[in-house]
Design a protein that fits this description.
- The protein is mainly alpha-helical.
- The chain has one domain: Globins (Globin-like).
- Helices cover 64% and strands 0% of the residues.
- The longest helix has 18 residues.
- Bound molecules: protoporphyrin IX containing FE (HEM).
Length: 133
């Protein structure tokens, strides 16, 4: 019998969340929170003054990461996440600030508890590897 590759989950997390339009709302909410909440001022200070380019890059990255079109990696200037984050001093507190903004953004944009559980779990793993202090 010919063995086959594991089936791609259908629908993908990208489709379940509401594709690019939903990710645009979530990522915009994420950076609005980062810009306005004094509790995450250290995280904000780590970023460039203009968050415009980041709103685009994080949205594009998350599209592919959730199983949608890999637009971030089709860009000429795409970089791997480990290299992007290595120059920044990311400790446990900084990781918490990032995650708290993203969790609130997912909530504020009405992402279901079920879908959030999968996304939060994957983000917890990814951000663990980014802690470098
Ligand atoms: C652990 C907490 C994190 C911290 C403190 C952090 C911080 C940063 C900083 C300071 C930058 C550069 C910003 C700038 O140039 O203005 C950046 C870029 C970026 N981050 Fe993060 N980040 C974190 C987690 C994540 C996660 C979990 C993802 C993906 C889901 C992500 C995706 C990106 C992307 C796509 C870029 C832009 C890369 C490029 O320039 O092409 N980050 N991050």
């Amino acid at each position: 019998m010919v063995s086959s590759l594991p089936a791609t989950p259908q629908p993908s997390l990208y489709e379940r969340i509401g594709e690019e339009a939903a990710l645009r709302r979530i990522v915009d909410r994420f950076y609005d929170l980062m810009e306005s909440d004094p509790a995450v001022a250290p995280l904000r200070a780590m970023h460039a003054a203009d968050l415009g380019p980041m709103r685009e890059r994080l949205r594009e990255f998350m599209m592919g990461w959730l199983g949608g079109p890999p637009v971030y990696f089709q860009r000429k200037n795409a970089r791997c996440m480990a290299m992007v984050h290595a120059p920044f001093p990311i400790d446990a507190a900084m990781r918490e600030q990032w995650l708290s903004c993203m969790h609130r953004a997912l909530d504020d944009c009405g992402v279901s508890a079920d879908l959030q559980a999968s996304i939060r779990k994957a983000l917890a793993r990814m951000t663990e590897d980014m802690v470098n202090r």
